[in-house]
Design goal:
Trna Endonuclease, Chain: A, domain 1, alpha+beta, 5 strands
C-alpha cells in the first residue's frame, strides 16, 4: 500500500509541477528532504520562494487534502524550509510563501486543482 501511495503522490506532484510551470514558476526542487522532513516542491516566482505541499485525493470521502496539512505538518514544513534557505544561503534574502496544491479527482482524467497560496 505504501508503494501505491508513493506512485499516486508522485503523479499528483507531476500535475502540480505542470500547473506551477504554466503559471510562470520555476521549480527549484522536487521532494527536497533533510533530517527534519520533506517538502514536496520548492518553486520560485519573482523574488519569492514557494514551499508547496501537494495533496491528492480521488474524492472527498475521507476529507479534503488541505485538511491533512495540520499545525504539526505546517511546523515541520517551516523547519525544513528554514534548513533549505540556510543551505542555499538565502535566509533573510528572499520572501517566502507556504502553499498547498490540492488535487481532487482522477489525475489521469478529470480532476480539480486548487492552489492555496500563502495559506499558512
Amino acid at each position: 500500500m505504501k508503494q501505491f501511495n508513493k506512485v499516486k503522490g508522485s503523479g499528483g506532484e507531476a500535475v502540480a509541477t505542470a500547473y506551477l510551470e504554466k503559471q510562470g514558476f520555476t521549480i527549484l526542487e522536487s521532494n527536497f528532504s533533510c533530517k527534519i522532513g520533506e517538502i514536496d516542491l520548492v518553486a520560485c516566482k519573482g523574488d519569492c520562494i514557494h514551499f508547496v505541499e501537494v495533496k491528492y485525493r480521488r474524492s472527498a470521502d475521507f476529507g479534503y487534502g488541505r485538511e491533512s496539512v495540520t499545525r504539526g505538518k505546517q511546523q515541520t514544513i517551516r523547519k525544513v524550509a528554514t534548513w533549505y534557505l540556510v543551505e542555499k544561503g538565502l535566509l533573510n534574502e528572499v520572501d517566502v510563501s507556504f502553499d498547498v496544491i490540492e488535487i481532487m479527482g482522477d489525475i489521469n482524467g478529470k480532476y480539480k486543482l486548487e492552489y492555496l497560496e500563502a495559506c499558512f
